Amino acid sequence: MYAIVRAGGRQEKVSVGDVLLVDKVNAQAGESVDLAALLLVDGESITSDADSLAKVKVTAEVVKAAKGPKIVIQKYKNKTGYKKRQGHRQPLTQVKITAIDA
């Protein structure tokens, strides 16, 4: 059994025991969070109806806070002496899928 869930603006395919990185969630390590299911595949049956998916509960446990890869932003204008360098690391949360209840 697996599900497609909405996790921070993206869609992820998850099954029980998967560990994935999602956008930052306001929860401490060890707490549990619920993810919105968009599709549920259970053997031969596929559930995509909104009313049926409202009953589906995908539970994940927060493992730890993490950061994404460093992204370097550089701006440069020729012949003017203007250059600017900036970096960014996206805050993420590592979660482990503990249950998919249909």
TrEMBL record:
InterPro entries: bL21-like, bL21-like_sf, Ribosomal_bL21, Ribosomal_bL21_CS
PROSITE patterns listed in its UniProt record: RIBOSOMAL_L21
UniProt-listed Pfam families: Ribosomal_L21p
Keywords for this protein: Ribonucleoprotein, Ribosomal protein, RNA-binding, rRNA-binding
A GO biological process held by the record: translation
Any one annotated GO CC term: cytoplasm
GO terms assigned for molecular function: rRNA binding; structural constituent of ribosome
SUPFAM superfamilies: L21p-like
Oligomeric and partner information: Part of the 50S ribosomal subunit. Contacts protein L20.
General function of this protein: This protein binds to 23S rRNA in the presence of protein L20.
Family membership: Belongs to the bacterial ribosomal protein bL21 family.
Protein name: Large ribosomal subunit protein bL21
